[in-house]
UniProtKB/TrEMBL annotation:
General function of this protein: Catalyzes the phosphorylation of D-fructose 6-phosphate to fructose 1,6-bisphosphate by ATP, the first committing step of glycolysis.
Record lineage: Bacteria, Bacillati, Actinomycetota, Actinomycetes, Micrococcales
Amino acids binding ATP: G10, R72, T73, G103, E104, G105, T106
Official protein name in the record: ATP-dependent 6-phosphofructokinase
Binding positions for Mg(2+) per the UniProt entry: E104
EC main group: transferase
The species this protein was found in: Agromyces bauzanensis
GO molecular function annotation: 6-phosphofructokinase activity; AMP binding; ATP binding; diphosphate-fructose-6-phosphate 1-phosphotransferase activity; fructose-6-phosphate binding; identical protein binding; metal ion binding; monosaccharide binding
GO cellular component, one term: 6-phosphofructokinase complex
Compartments in which it is found: Cytoplasm
Record-listed E.C. numbers: 2.7.1.11
Keyword annotations of the record: ATP-binding, Cytoplasm, Glycolysis, Kinase, Magnesium, Metal-binding, Nucleotide-binding, Transferase
InterPro entries: ATP_PFK (IPR022953), ATP_PFK_prok-type (IPR012003), Phosphofructokinase_CS (IPR015912), Phosphofructokinase_dom (IPR000023), Phosphofructokinase_III (IPR012829), PKF_sf (IPR035966)
Catalytic activity field: beta-D-fructose 6-phosphate + ATP = beta-D-fructose 1,6-bisphosphate + ADP + H(+)
Residues given in the record as substrate binding sites: T126, I127, D128, R163, M170, G171, R172, E222, R266, H272, I273, Q274, R275
Length: 342
């Protein structure tokens, strides 16, 4: 079989490990031939691909980013987009299946293309951990490690100056990175998109920390809304998919806290540092296994399915199930963390 691989959406540590896992499994067990589409769905629409051999994936599991490049191209748009054009391009080049590595957007596109008859297997990718139907996705654990290290570092400088620190982490719709890094780093409040909060409550936690003689540290996900806000804070325009580019909520909160509590406050936006660099060992293993199982799913003809982590096993679910809803932080997980606030 000749399989085309693509990586699409925001990049994520572990994408290359998936590619390596898929290629090694395919070459060793099935004599598969691989090509890689450049820049996500863009390469599919434009017929822009290159062969990937076993030699090409040597040492790739520890390499951040994606050797194939990524984009937020919609495969249904443009002169050469849409299922008929794509199928024609695949037939002309003898490509029998696609492994699409992406988040909920990429997989929604994969789902629509599968419905139109294309042979696609999905692999879940997200540092946000917002995909349903998988316990975790690779990239998330690495991002949490990076955010936790940032918290540890911010705490020492905060204590030296008796300041309040507000750290902004990624998380467009869900607050998993904030929740896990905040718990790991002992944050005094964790603010997430699922749980709008008033500035008074935030300042109450800050005050109580200061009363104990400590320097308050708050972790906020970029998608967090104060209870007075209708939409998440955005002043950076739109992304390629016409969604507001988030970021800046920490910069907004720090002066509000300073004004109300009198504590000198600073903000830090961790940004794309969370997405760059080498994946953790856990993420390398998870990504490698997902890649290997995606190839098996292709040989099983399980078109329209996504490989997924269930407990410690890799299984398959329908992509439809994966994109049907978001994996939000449940109330009981937030309540559990909230005991430690202040
Ligand atoms: N329902 C959809 N139909 C077709 N294409 C979609 C759909 N949803 C998202 N996409 C495409 O997939 C791209 C990747 O989605 P995005 O949410 O940016 O990344 P991720 O795959 O990481 O979630 C989007 O920019 C868009 O072009
Ligand atoms: O700066 P970019 O590439 O537009 O991406 C920012 C977004 O990408 C993410 O890191 C991941 O989002 P996706 O999985 O949808 O690509 C979000 O947390 C963040 O809002
Ligand atoms: Mg997305």
């Amino acid at each position: 079989m000749k399989i085309g691989i693509l990586t699409s959406g925001g990049d994520c540590p572990g994408l290359n490990a998936v590619i390596r896992g898929a290629v090694l499994k395919g070459v060793i067990s099935h004599d598969t031939e691989f090509v890689g589409f450049r820049w996500g769905w863009k390469g599919v629409v434009e017929g822009d691909f290159t062969s990937i051999t076993r030699h090409d994936v040597r040492g790739l599991s520890k390499q951040g980013g994606t050797i194939l490049g990524s984009s937020r191209t919609n495969p249904f748009e443009g002169e050469h987009g849409g299922p008929e054009n794509i199928q024609r391009m695949l037939d002309e080049n003898g490509i029998e299946a696609i492994i699409a590595i992406g988040g909920e957007g990429t997989l929604a596109a994969a789902q629509r293309l599968t419905d139109a008859g294309l042979r696609i297997i999905g692999v879940p990718k997200t540092i946000d951990n917002d995909l349903a139907a998988t316990d975790y996705s690779f990239g998330f654990e690495t991002a949490v490690e990076i955010a936790t290290e940032a918290i540890d570092r911010l705490r020492t400088t905060a204590e030296s100056h008796n300041r309040c620190m507000v750290l902004e982490v990624m998380g467009r719709h869900v607050g998993w990175i904030a929740l896990h890094s905040g718990m790991a780093g002992g944050a005094h409040a964790i603010l997430i998109p699922e749980q709008p909060m008033g500035i008074e409550e935030i300042c109450h936690y800050v005050d109580s920390v200061r009363e104990r003689g400590r320097a308050p540290l708050i972790v906020v996900a970029e998608g967090f809304k104060l209870d007075t806000m209708e939409e998440a804070h955005s002043h950076l325009g739109l992304d390629a998919f016409n969604r507001p580019r988030l970021g800046g909520i920490a910069e907004k909160l720090a002066p509000m806290i300073e004004e109300r509590t009198g504590i000198e406050s600073r903000h830090t936006v961790l940004g794309h540092i969370q997405r760059g660099g080498a994946p953790s060992a856990y993420d390398r293993v998870l990504a490698t296994r997902l890649g290997m199982h995606a190839v098996d799913a292709a040989y099983d003809g399980a078109w329209g399915s996504m490989v997924t982590l269930r407990g410690t096993d890799i299984e398959t679910v329908s992509i439809a199930e994966a994109v049907g809803s978001l994996n939000r932080v449940p109330q009981h997980r937030y309540d559990e963390a909230k005991i430690l606030f202040g």
